[in-house]
Design brief:
Radius of gyration of chain B: 22 Å
Number of strands of chain B: 2
Strand content of chain B: under 5%
Structural class of chain B: mainly alpha
CATH superfamily of chain C: Response regulator
Strand order of the largest sheet of chain B: 1-2
Oligomer: heterotrimer
Order of helices and strands of chain B: HEEHHHHHHHH
CATH class of the domain at 66-181 in chain B: Mainly Alpha
Largest sheet of chain C: 6 strands, parallel
CATH superfamily of the domain at 66-181 in chain B: Homeodomain-like
Largest interface: B-C, 33 and 27 residues
Radius of gyration of chain C: 14 Å
Amino acid sequence: MPTPSSRYLRTAFVVGLFVILCIGGFTYKHISELSQTSKVVKDNYSLRSELELIISNLKDAEIGHRGFLLTHDSLFLNPYNESLQKITNNLSRLDTLIVPNGEQVEKLKELKSDIASRFKNFDKSFSLAKDDAILSQDLLFLLHEGEIKMDRIRADITEMLELEQRLLIHNQEINEEKIGLTPLLFYGLLIVTLVILLLAYFKMTKDLKVLKENNVELEIFEKLTKQSEIVSNTSTWVWYIEENEFEFSDNLYRLVGEEPQSFEPTLENFYKYVHEEDINHLGQQVNMMMREEELPFTTYRVVHKDGTIRHLKAYSKLMDDTEGDKKMFGVTIDITSEVENYRIIEQRNQELERTNKELSAFNYVASHDLQEPLRKIQTFMSRLEAKEKDRISESGQLYIQRMKSASARMRMLIEDLLQYSRTNTSEKEYLKTNMNMLLEHAKTELLDSIEEKQAKIICDDLPTMEVISFQIQQLFINLISNSLKYSKEDVPPIIEITHEEVRSRDVEQIKESLYKFHHKITFKDNGIGFEQTYAEKIFLLFNRLHGKSEYSGTGIGLAICKKIVENHKGVIIAEGKPNIGATFIIYLPFLK
Amino acid sequence: MKLLLKFDFTKVCNTVLKQKLEAHQFNYQQTAFGEIELMDKVSEEQLKLFHEDINSFGIEVVEDPKKIVIQKIKDVIVDMVFNEKDINVKTSVYLSEQLEENYNYLSNLFSEMTYTSIENFIILQKIEYTKILLTNEDLSLTEIAFKLNYSSVAHLSKQFKNTTGITPSAFQRIIAKRKQIN
Amino acid sequence: MNSDYINIALADDDEDDRLFFTEAFEELKIKSKVLLFKDGIELMEYLNDSNNTLPNLLFLDLNMPKKSGLECLKDIKSAKRLRGMAIAIYSTSASEEDIENTFVKGANVYIKKPNDFEKLKKVLSEVVTTNWQYHTSGLNKDNFLLRL
């Protein structure tokens, strides 16, 4: 990561620099102390030499003094005066060399007073010596005194020298310490610097490596993106908000029918390709994008220079850069094929709907209009029977009977067909209905038959859901009436209606459903049942398992049931066991 | 010269009747072709005069005692049903008590004169009352079944459907929709 | 019912149905006067003429040319003078919703044309009788709903 890395580097450098400066500071202090120390040593030596000079100068003064005493030659006073001067100089230099508050100050004072008294002694002896040629008693005394004073001065000086020596040694020791430390510090400084340099080097090499790898990945990625854009007919673009500049990907150029980067990526240039009818709308959307910093899905058409029209869909969102520059990343897709497909599907749908409507209208009208003449036939037949019975022969009456049953059958067929046509769902409303109510109505409709067969209907509580009421009612009627019709002879039919909620994925037949849950309603009877092999056939239109003479029926009832269940996006399954009974399971999806 | 005439008897009778009623200043309502209801009380004298007047036109007031009995039977039944009378005895017993006649006689007379049986009439009244309770009082079918002493809701439902041909709920629905339109 | 005429009217474009209808009433021995109309226009012309006697009971076929049964029903229910007439829709068949719809629009009776003459007689008799009951027993005509 470049950013944290540069921070690292910066910190490392700052720390390193700080360390170096610290160490440098320390080193400098050491060196200045060192020079200080050597100055001290130098002063020490100067002091010592001054002290030694004092002694030698004193000795010169003594020689001069003795010489004068011996010869009374004023020639010998010169060295004496010179020495005096020299000693004065020495003392004044000593003042400068002495550490103000040290022990030496006291000692110097003593020395100074001793020297002063010695010179007093010299002066006394000079004044005495002038008078006599021989050593008088006083003179001898003075000379002795002088010797004693000289000793004292020597002692002072020796003391001072010793002290200086001690000081020097002390200094030396410190010096040695410091000298000992300095190379260490230098090495330390050097090592730290080296270490920092090394660390920096390694870090930078590592970062560089990562950057290189990233770079390679990015290059691959860029190539892939370019390819994928071409293959999937998509393109990308960037709008740099602050600078109001655009960047178009190669494929965006291709989407408008041009070569990549063949013109400058600006809005004006792009608008040249937009269909004249869509320019206003697109312009508005783009303006809004510039205000709101968001472009919702926008579709528009572009016209290639060869006249081809393509449909494009654009979308863009604000991408926050870490550096703070605001950018918008956009995607533009060519959706021409989707639009085409949609149009085709729409068309087909409309056609289908139309055909459907026509079919069901035909169905309805046919069934309805067929009923009229049939009814007439039946009514006239019954009139014939009633009025002309006596005048018709036996065979004639038989024929009439046959005609009656044939027309009765025809009527049933037409009624059932009519019912079938009514299960067409267009213009039917799905309303929330309590299915218990529909079941009750169904039972009421079939009340006579139920009583006649002494049937028992046991039912669970049924749910409330959105259904086409009359269709579900018809469904229940058809199923119950079937159970009543196909009951065992002399066995009162027992019909059990149960309900439970199931998860679609737990049931084979509905696991592909888009709905998660289904209502499972089961109609179970104890009638004659049927062979399981016919379980799917029985739902076919006009399919019957029994002859007309055994059981009446048109073969439409269950087809109607299936259609109704399918209208409600459900599934109906039949299970039969010959002589035991039949079970019809209805699955109806619902949203929980 | 000859004129062939065609008579619209209904029109003739109605016109005569209307004239006569107005002449006698009766406040009346024609409830059926052969039935007039006098809204105000009329004295015997006035009635007698009226009778005589219309008699000359061939119109007779029927004072069939049988009819009076029929009306009484109807009144008793209506009262029984609409006032929710709690009868502890069989309807036949109750009727014969109220009218002080043998039930068989009443039954036969009723059928002869009205072409329906007493039982049917009672059922009809009950169903009518049910209709009123459903629409005006907003009672549930269960409550009504209880009120009218039906053994169960199903029984009432069945009778309703048998009598009218539609279910009680369909009836309610239709009445509600009619109200919506108006 | 007593020995008085009841005025019946039928509007039906079908000749055979008109024939059945009149024959049925003849055999019923109910004292009735049956008026027949071929289509809705004829019917409304008759009804709107205030000189004409209004029928006690009107049987109305739904599928008629020029003016359908439902249109006639609408006109009748909007006319103050005609509103009180008992109307029976007499039709071949219709879905449950359509039947309910005719009741909602103001019909009192809905009859599905039977395919048997005896049934027809029975049905017509029931309608007439029930209508008479409403007539004579002071029952609320608005609640007169009958489906056969």
